Amino acid sequence: MILEGKVKKGLGNANFWIKKIENIFYSKTGIKLFHGTLNIELETPYELENYWIIGKDEYGGTQDVYVQECKVLKQKAYIVRSEKTAHKSNVIEIVSDINFRENFNLKDEDYIRVKI
């Protein structure tokens, strides 16, 4: 499945949340996360499928975090979504071990595909 959308500016709080889950994420995936997300506004809403959960008790948070593997620009990445996200259902947040904006010179409104 291919999701299509545009790169969008985030809420600016990803660094805080990634610091909270990064050790658990590393233990489950072997990936050391970049401290930021790539936000993509999809053309249609998307509900995660075949996801795994980082439980709120695991990282001392107030919400579970749902995680689904994907590929962005041929790079292994993950869609993350908290139980009560501030984003609309057509916005996904991508985490990886790289900064997609810097490595691929991405800017807001750039068109992008995410392979599930």
Account of the 3D structure:
The protein is of the alpha+beta class and about 120 residues long. A six-stranded antiparallel β-barrel has the order 1-2-6-5-4-7. It has three helices and seven strands. A hairpin with a 2-residue loop joins strand 4 and strand 5. It is globular and about 35 Å long. The mean pLDDT is about 90.
Secondary-structure topology with pairs:
Blueprint: E1 2-8, H1 14-29, E2 38-42, E3 52-54, H2 56-59, E4 65-72, E5 75-82, E6 91-95, H3 100-103, E7 111-115
Antiparallel strand pairs: 1-2, 1-7, 2-6, 3-4, 4-5, 4-7, 5-6
Overview features:
116 residues; alpha+beta; 6-stranded antiparallel beta barrel; 3 helices
Quick synopsis:
The chain has 116 residues and is α+β, with helices and mostly antiparallel strands. 21% of the residues lie in helices and 35% in strands.
